[in-house]
Write a structure and sequence with these properties.
With 74 residues, the protein is mainly α. The protein has helices at residues 2-21, 25-30, 43-73. 77% of the residues lie in helices and 0% in strands. It is elongated, with a radius of gyration of 16 Å. The chain crosses the membrane at residues 51-73. It comes from Paenibacillus rhizosphaerae.
Length: 74
């Protein structure tokens, strides 16, 4: 279980970093087909994605710390 938490934490951190660096990528793949004209994501969408990326990084870090604690002390 401890290694699973560490791996999950690394995946969350990687996804969070990618979301923070390019928040519009998810919009292009999941939402852009719904518009008929060439549109761009709104500023509020981009800010929300950046917040979600930050939360994924924090959660991934917590998972890694818990996994390392379990690996070393339990």
């Amino acid at each position: 279980m401890d290694l699973v938490l560490i791996i999950l934490g690394l995946i969350l951190i990687g996804g969070g970093i990618m979301t923070r660096r390019n928040p519009g990528r998810g919009w292009r793949s999941s939402e852009s087909w719904k518009t008929e004209e060439e549109a761009e994501p709104s500023e509020s969408y981009l800010e929300l994605q950046k917040i979600r990326g930050f939360l994924a990084i924090v959660l991934g870090s917590i998972f890694i710390v818990i996994g390392l604690f379990m690996l070393l002390f339990l």
